[in-house]
Structures are given as C-alpha cells and as structure tokens.
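Lecture notes, structural biology module. Today: joint structure prediction for complexes of two components.
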Amino acid sequence: MTADANKAHPHDPFLVEGCADGAEALAVLDGVARTYRSGAVEVEALKPLDLCVRRGDFLAVMGPSGSGKSTLLHVLGCLDRPTAGRYLLDGHDVARLSDRELAAVRNAVIGFVFQRFHLLADESARRNVELPLLYAGVARGERRQRASEALDSVGLSARMTHRPNQRSGGEQQRVALARALVKRPRLLLADEPTGNLDSKAGERVLQLIEDQSRAGTTVLMITHDPEVAARAEQTLLMRDGGLSRA
Amino acid sequence: MNRRMRSVIREGLLHVTRHPLRSSLTAFTSAIAIAVTVNVISLSFGMQEDIAGDVDLFGRHTLDVGVPPALAPGVKRPSLGEAQVERTRRLLTGLDPIVVPRRQRAAPIRVDGIDEPYRLQVVAAAPAYLRTLSIPVAHGRWLRADDAPGSPELEGTCCLDEASAVRLWPQRDPAEAVGARLEMRIDGVARTMRVVGVLSDPLRYRELFETFDEGRGARTLTSSLLSFRNIYVPAATFGPGDYTGISIVLPTDEAVLEAQERLIAVWADARDLAALSRGSLIVFVRKQWMEALGTSTMQGSMVGNLVWILVVLVAAVMISTLNLITVRERYDEVALRRCEGAQRRDIALQITVEGVTTALIGGIVGLPIGYVGAHVLREIVQFPFRFELRYAAVATGVAILLGLISSVIPARHAATLQPARVLGRRLR
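The predicted structure, tokenised, for the full assembly:
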C-alpha cells in the first residue's frame, strides 16, 4: 500500500473495532484494495477497506453478484494479493510472504469451502479429504486416519471410498467441509456453501459450520441468502467493492 | 527426497492410472517416436557397423596400383606392364610385400540352360591374389599354380564369387557350382572352364549394395571388382598385354603407410584428381577407401539420427500440446491444489511426473514395435539391422527426455496459474 492510498482512506471505526489492541485479531485488512486491469480498463474490485476478523468470529458477507465478495474471500484466503493496503493474517504481513510461504499459510491456517464443492472427481472421499495433509507432508497412515476422522465428524463415516459423483450434493459439500477441517484451520472461508444445495442439505452443512464456530474456529461465510447470513454473529454488506455493516 | 515430494510424485503416477484413455493417447505418440528411434538407430548403426565389417574383408592391408578410370582428353593412357610390376617390387623392398598383377575385363558367360549370356568381370591373376582379399573359400578350393588357363582344346579352371554362382545358377545352391562348367569368350576365343571353388560372399546386404551400386550408372573397374560378382581364372588365361592393376598386400598398417608414401612419390595418389590430367598411374589404398565409405555411412547414420531426432521433436510438440490441453481441462484441480497448500513446484513436479511416466510407458511399448519394425524392414529391403541393449537404453533415455521436454510448457503453465482467477471465473 502506498502512503497516499493510506491517507486517502478513512478508517471505518466499526469494521476495525476490536482490533485496537491487536490481541484477538486473526485477520486484519487495513485499507486493502484490489484492482484488476483488463486491457486499458481498470476495474476496482475492492475499494480500500478495513476489516478486523477476531479469533472465533462468525461473519457473514452479503452482497449482489459482482460486488467484490469473492475477491474479498480470495484476498483473505491468500489466493490473491491486494494491490493496496495491508493484510495481517495471524500476525503475518501477507504482502511480505513469498509464494511458497503463502502456500504454507493456506495449507496450515485457512480452510476453504466452495459453492461448487471443487472435489477431485476421480478420487474417493477420503483421498479428497487427505489432499491438504499431503501438502503438509503428513505420513500416509496418519493422513488416512485424520481423513477418516474428519469424514466421521461431518457424518460421512460410511462410503469413504466412494467417488464424489456417487454422492448427493449435500454429501459432496460435507466432504468438502471435511477437507477444509482436516487441517484444523484457524480461519474457515466459505463461499456460498449452501448455494447449490437443497434446504435440508444446506441446513446440515450450516449446522456443521456453526459447530465449528462454536468450537472456536473463525468463520467468514459469503452468501446471498439473508436466512443463511442470519446464522452468523455479524453480517457485513458488500456493494461496489465497498464493505459496510448490515 | 522428502515425504511431501514423494506424495506429489505418487499423485502424478495415480493420475496416469486414473485416466487411461488420455494417458494411452500420449503414450501412443511416445511409442511411435520411440519405435522410429529404435528403428533408425538399429538400422543406421547396423548399416554403419556391418558395412564397415564387410569392407574389412576387402583388404585392410591392400594397395592397388592402376590406370586412372578416366583420362583427360588427349592424355595418353599410362602403361602398366611387367616393368611397372618390377618397379613396384623394387620400391617396396624391405616391406615384405606380396605383389600380384591382375588382368580384368568383362566377358560374356554362358552356362547350360540359359540362352542369353551374362556379362561378368573375369579376373586373371596368380594364386596369391586370394591373399589380397580376406574372403574365405566357401566351397571347393582356390586356384593353384598348375591349374590350366583353358583353351579351345583344353578345359580350364576357374573360381567364382558366390554372387556369380547365384546369378549363373539361380535355382541351385552355390555349393553345387563346384564341378560345373561354363563357357566364356575372351579375345574372341571361346573356352570352357570348370568351376573348382566358390568364394564366400562378403556382402551381407548384397541387394542393398547393388541397389546403390547400380544407381550410380558409371562403374569403374574397381567398383566392379568390389561388387564381388567375379570369375577368377589362372593368370595365363588372358594373353600378353598391359595389366589392369597390381594388388599389393602388406603385413601391417605401418607398412601400408610406408608403401603408400614410396609409391606416390613415383605415381599419383588416387585421391589426387589432377593425376587424371597428367596421365600417371594411380595408387589406391583400400583402407582409405574403407575409411571414405565409413565416412559416407557415418553421414548416412547422421541423416538417420536427424530423422529420429526430428520425429522425437514432433512427438514432443504433440505430447506437449496434449498435455497442455489436459492442463487446461484441469484448471479447477490445479486451483484447488493451490488452495490446499500446493506450491508451484509441487504442481510442476506432478505434471512433469505425469508427462515422463506416460512417455516412458510409450517408450517401453515402442521398443518392441521398433524392433519388430526394423526386422520387417530388413526382410523387405534387405537393410542392415543391428539391435543391441545399448540401443534400448538410448531409446529409454530418449523417452524420458521426450517426457521432460513435452512437460516443460504444460508444467510451467499449470504452476503459474492464479487460483483466484480460476476460482473467480468458475464461481461467478
């Protein structure tokens, strides 16, 4: 972030509330912005914004399509780097981390759940859940053990060797949730986790996410559905790349 | 290698097994490239080594003194008679040479059962002429000093190259030529000759040799001699007159060099084209001819090697394209792996392992295909062919290299994918 950008960006007192002492903060966005260039056109996907996500928070982010929700999630998930501002995750300035270190952070700190599950179609449920552990260098036996436990924790102890296409949408999302949880993440990022599910399956997934929140995992969930957002402790609104309190 | 790397390699191997159709297509391309590689290497090296072996029989320690095959207009043909033979002996004093003058000319040969006579080269020389060749007698015996030269009244004696026997009696085993009679007309005089021996054919790939040889059009006496389709008769068979050439055998390589030096101090080196305009006798060292042939076959091998290298490069481009398409179909997977903690090098390693594995599988399949293909070629066109384990090792190395080359671009492409862009596009 440039000094000019900082000066131009007035901090939102609400969104940085609780981060004054820094002790409880897991993720802090300080004037973070993300601009894309498409030919000669510059698109401001995220306007300079502040956000403090405390440990154990359960936040929902709502907003219309194209408002910047996914971009925010990608920045928070260290999948994308801000073009301005500072992002502190678990005390680390993300901008200063190398690509390898970012991969390690994603592996150790962040769990992802996507609307379309993003499971490896040719692999069994257990192998899908093992994936993050593989990149953590966990031994094969332990990987299998922990993957089985994670699947068990989302109610999928049976049919662990079945492939995703042999499961319902709700089960696939629970496999994806198990994959996110197997590495015991400190921050769980869920992008429309119930968007492709019927109400019953969606409810089951939401309960599991709530369980994780209650167990102390920090959750940030993107949703279009006000009812889903209502399950979170706080709801934020995104519009035109800006973030505000609901 | 750490556990993480081992796991990534395993992921690559598993991916190959999980997509048999895709892997088979890639492996098939690799198999074709490796088959061509094996084929060309076996053929080109086989040709090079076998022909080198063949010409070795022609006389490693032999020199020839002869008349230039063609003379510049107006230049007088140099004389090659007893005086030159004697001079040759004197020049080579102390080198322990065997000096054998020979007369040679094409003559119509007639045998029972054929109407049209064949024209074959007839070589008249002393029995020591065999020493200038390294060819064993396959059937019967070689000429002796007391063998009759033949006349209209008296049956003479001759020996044949195996190829001559095959040409004169195509339906018979060359061994059966021994004892047979043939008629030849020399200097307008017809005479009957009895075959007493047949020499082995030193050309293992005669059909190939003759295909090339006949394509040349203009043959020299020497190239005719080298075709090993001659008839050998006692020296006295031809009447007096100039010799066609003088064959000289020496005991060592050093003696050959020394002899060459002494002879070209008097006559011309056969490689010296200006000798044609001077009308000098020429000195021809068979070893140098062999080396020149070796260079030619080496060049032939190089052309062959260029062919397989080109095929491998084309295959690399094709496999690379296939792999790139595969990577494009796997954007989601790559993005997901990056989300879950894969580093760029993990992705690159996995794609490379997949590429090398499929190329190697193709290589293993291509090896026997190339081997069989080379055998078939050998049967069809009588091409020299030699398959050795080291060629298989080369082909395996080529397969690995092919996999590596064809994986560079796809691996780099996959490794540099921005997961946010992929996920953003898919999720929107």
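Point to remember: The domain at 55-81+98-245 of chain A is CATH 3.40.50.300 (Rossmann fold).
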